[in-house]
Structure formats: structure tokens, C-alpha cells
Amino acid sequence: MSGVTEGAIFTDRPRTGADKRAGLLSRMWKQRADYLYVLPALIVMMVVIAYPIYYTIDLSLFRTPASLQLRDKIFIGLDNYTTILSSASFWKVTWQTLIWTFFSTLFAFLLGLGAALALHREFVGRGLLRALLLIPWVVSAVAASYVWKWLYHSDFGAIGAMMVQLGLADQPINFVDNINTALPSLIVVNIWKEFSFAMIMLMAGLQTVPEQLLRAAKVDGANAWQRFWHVTFPHLAGVSTVTILLLMVANFNSFIIPWIMTGGGPAGSTDIWITQIYQLAFGRQRWGVAAAYSVLLFLIMMTLGYFYVRALTQGDKERAGA
Amino acid sequence: MAEIVLQHVMKNYGSLYAVNDVSLTVNDGEFVALVGPSGCGKTTTLNLIAGLLPMSGGDIVIGDRLVNDLDPKDRDIAMVFQNYALYPNKSVYKNLAFPLQMRKLPAEQIDRKVKEAARLLDITHLLERKPRELSGGQQQRVALGRALVRDPAVFLMDEPLSNLDAKLRVQMRSEIKRFHHNLNATIVYVTHDQLEAVTMADKMAVMNGGLLLQYDTPANVFANPVNTFVASFVGSPAMSLIPLDAVTHGTEASLRSPEGWDLPLSPLNARKIASSSTSKIILGARHSTLKLHKSEVPGSVPGKVYTVEPTGDITFAQIFINGAVVNISVEPSVLLTPDEQVFIEFDQDRMHLFDAETTMALQAA
Questions:
Q1: Superfamily in which the A89-321 domain is placed by CATH
Q2: Is A234 close to B79, i.e. CB distance below 8 A?
Q3: Taking the model in full, what pTM does it have?
Q4: Residue ranges per structural domain of chain A
Q5: Is the ipTM beyond the 0.90 threshold?
Q6: How far is B135 from chain A (nearest CA, A)?
Q7: Which chain A residues have a beta carbon less than 8 Å from that of B52?
Q8: DSSP string spanning A56-103?
Q9: Does the beta carbon of B341 lie under 8 angstroms from any beta carbon of chain A?
Q10: Fold exhibited by the domain B4-229
Q11: In degrees rounded to 5, what are phi and psi of residue A136?
């Protein structure tokens, strides 16, 4: 028993010559108790994460005609990938996905930063305002999508009616039924839904800005804007990177708002990768192509994930070095 | 450089007075330490001088300007903070240049001043580094540099040494003293460490509970503490305080212990007793003024050894006298054992008598 716990706790203990010569397998055998402890978690991860990934990759190499059962799929190598990359709709959807992700992330972050800064100072009703601004983040995305759908409605929508009454438009605008305004309208909803998240993250970040640094800057003659630019903002760099990456991942992957509000329409003008994949798979039963699409999305997500983890651990290193 | 005048300065949060009617003058070129325990109002006072907190009342004059309503940047002050408060994302050079950039000085003038300050503080080789790559002492020197580079009228220092380890603290103490000497700077220095105040400052202001208790040279504060708080706060080990009853017969007076002994007082001390309105007296004595005897001598009082702490060239002992712990220092050759009966002789010229009710020092009428 003592050998087991030693292995578990003192893995960095100085190794003897015999240890070094021993192969990987014998080292694993020596630490078999450790492996045993993590085995249940490993099995669960295998079943719910690794296997679906493997199955998707596998499926992406097959053609799955709707007339055949799934087990009769036909191996076609990388043909699905060529089909996707050479289709005109792929590039259109990709462009829309990039616009969707870029503008949603940018404005959700800026709005969140503004809200966090506004809420950081003491004023009457701060708690109430903070709670109100959190509402978009806590309401169900499905419910919010339906509410916004009605707000945007060309006949009964409150926004259109208000614009007419204010004299900004002669008649209610067709926000989501027009291929030119549908995507921007959805981005507005997405920003509204997400900015509270950025706000919370940045509010937490703001609380870690050392008061003495701000005082030092005040004595050094910095005005409010200079204090923000030279002290607060650099201090928020780490949390900002993490927030932006998380927002990008969420936006690249977002499904509920576009799917419920427009279903990718009109005329595919709000189609992004996820809605496209969903339609290919569950609308048109083109499992193979949908799987290939998913693999591409997976690669992009993994790249973002890499930067996310790096941003997180870099913060650790800096703190450890300080 | 300039003088600082505080007149009836107040700072209260509701009914809590953080700084209560503090008036003092820091002369041009003087090094003044604000000293006291945590929460005594010393840092608040410093922040009021800096303009980082609004005053509740009173006036502050720096140089010949009333600065009550001026922003910190317009008060011509520089500040050094406890945790250095260097800008972590800027190099040492940019940290030093920052206050000058904020004042929109021309680039070549900034460069000249930064290099001059760096040379003065011997940090030229660190200019390109980031603060986190520096040791505590180096960071503190950069913080001093950032204060110095602007050539301010007044330096305000908020416990600048308390984040350093003991050895470095002693070293930086002399560096700051040298800094003061070389620049002939007006410095207000906050510390909770009375030793720093005593060793560095021209004058020390002892505060407690928001009140300024005593403002004088360290030697005077040490020799003539105004009350029991100052007496026990300044000096290490602390001054021993023994509560006793005063007994007078005519012009003579003595202090009586319930333990059954009498300590006759000198004529001067007897006059102090005569001027007091109470017979409850606290006798104060510093360790170095006490003499220890193994057998009774005239004018000595009995006590019992509690602990013995040899430090090498001097041995400190704690003696129980009339229920109070009394610090005393003896030659290392004197061997003492706990619970041993000893006799302590007081120096009548260097003993302190306090009114037990008001805690104030008694004065001869």
C-alpha cells in the first residue's frame, strides 16, 4: 500500500537508475493504482466523447444514400470533403458564419466591457441594474428567440411599430424576411443574449485591478481615460482573451437563435455552419456530408481550443513568475 | 521642496473618526514619520495630504498653496506605495517615464530625467526589465525613482518597506535615509514600525484612534512620552508600566504596592504626584534604566523572574512586579532562572509617572 500512495503523490521523486531503465509499461504497472482511480472517468469520456468523434470521422468517409440503410453505406474516401469544399454554398455559408461570429463577438465584448465599467463604480441602484443586465444571459435562448421573432415581426412587431411612430420608417420593416437585413438582425439578438456573459467575466476581472495602482496613476497625473488605458485595460488583457475566445467558440457553434428565428432562411441568408450541418443531416439525410462538415468544424474548434488553453495557462505562468 | 501644514484635519465615515482634528507642520526638507498601530489613521492622513481621499474638515497647505480642493496630480506630490504599485505591463524605463509623459514633457527631457533618476538609484541596468523580473528591493528602488523623477515638492511614502524581508528592510532604510539627505526632500513617511520611525525620521507623529498624540523628535518622544500609549508604543522592548497607589506625607511621596512594599520617590517625582488629582498612578520605566540586584538594596522592589531571553551581547528578562510584566536588560554574565526572586532598582531621574485614569504623563507643578 505504501508503494502505491508514494506513486500517487510523489510522481516527481528523484528516479533511480533502475527507474530510468524501466520501460513505460513497467512504470505504468508500478503506478497501476493511479490508473485504476482515473479509469472510470476515462471510460465515461471514451463512450461520450471519443467514440462519437471517431464515429463522425468514420462516417465522413462514406456515402449514405437516403434509399439505403445506414449500415449499407458506401466507402468513398475523401469525396465528401471535396464535395463540400467545391460547392458554392459552402463558401457562402462560411462567409456568413465568419460575419456572424466576428460581429457577435466584437459587439458582445465591447458592450460587456462598457457595462462592466459602468457597473464597477458605486451608485444607487447598481445591484438592480446588474440584475437586469444579467437577464439576457439567464433566460432560455429558445424563449428569447421566440420573443425576438415577435418583436421583429413585420405585421405585429413592436420594433417596427415603434419605428413608424417615431417617424423613422413609413411602414414596418421586414427585419428577418429580407435577405439583406436577416443576418444583421439575428446578430443583434445574439449580441443582446451574450453581452451579459462578457460583462460578468470583465466585472470579475475589474475587481482584481489593484487599487494602489490606480491611486499611483492618479498621483502620477493620469486622467480617468489614461488610468483605464494604462492600468485597467492591460490588467484585463488575460480575462479579455479568454472571454473573446469563449465567445468565438460559442458563436461559431451557435444554433438556437438562427435555427428558431429563421431556420437559416430566407434563401439561406442566415445559414451558418451549424444550421447547414443540421439541415444536411436531419433534413436531407446526407449523413456522410454532414459528418465531413462536422469534422471540419471540429478542427476549427480544436484550434480555438488550443489558444484558449494557452491563454489560460499563460496567465498561470505569469502569476507563478510574479 | 516645500513645507506642509495640516490644520484641524478631519476625516470621518459617519460617526467613525478616522482622522480627528490633526494639526501639524512639516518643515521644508524635514523627514516626518506618521506612526501608530493598524487603524490609527496614519495612512488616511497620508491619503488626505495626497488628495486621494476627500477631507471632512480642516485645511492642508503644501508650499504656499491651499490644496484642499486640488486633485492629487495638481498638488505637486509624489507617492511611494507599500506594494510598490509599479505598472506591471510597462518596463522600468516606462514606469519612470509615466508621470513625465502624463505631464506632456518633451521626449528628450523625459529621457534625460529618467536616466538621471536611474543613475541616482543605481537601476540603470534594469531599465528594460519588467517589474515582475525584479527583486523586492529593486522594485522599491524603481518606485522611489518614479517618485523622484518628477522633482515633486513633497514625497509621501506609505509603508514602503513593509513588503521587504527583514534584512533588505534594514538596507533600504539606510537608502531612504540617504535619499532624504541627498535630495533634502520633504518626506512624510507612514509606518507601523516604531523602529523605522525612530531611526529614520527628524520628527515623529504618534497617532492612535485618529488622534495625533505626540509630535516631536524621536529623542523627545522617547524620553518624554505624553501618555502611556506613546510610552509603550515607542521603544523596543516596550516601556514597562506598573499600576501602583501614591501615598503622600507632606512634601514626600512614595508608591505603594498591595504586595506590601513602598517605593520612596525623589523630590521632583513627589512634586509630580502632588500635582495630580488621583492617587492611582502608573509607573513607567524603560529596560535600560532598571538595575537588577540578587539581594535587597535601598530603593529596590521585589520581583520574580518570568522569562529570560539571551540575545548574545545583552540578556533581556521579564520580571513580575506587582502583577505587571517588567522588561529589563542585564549583562549576559548575569544568570537568572525562572521564578527566582530578584530586586529591581529604579532610576528616579528616568522613571515616568502617569495618571492611571487619564493615562497622561504627570508634570511637576
A1: MetI-like (1.10.3720.10)
A2: no
A3: 0.75
A4: 2-60, 89-321
A5: no
A6: 10
A7: 215, 218-219
A8: HHHHTTEE--TTS-GGG-EE-TTHHHHHHHH-HHHHHHHHHHHHHHHH
A9: no
A10: Rossmann fold (3.40.50)
A11: -55, -35
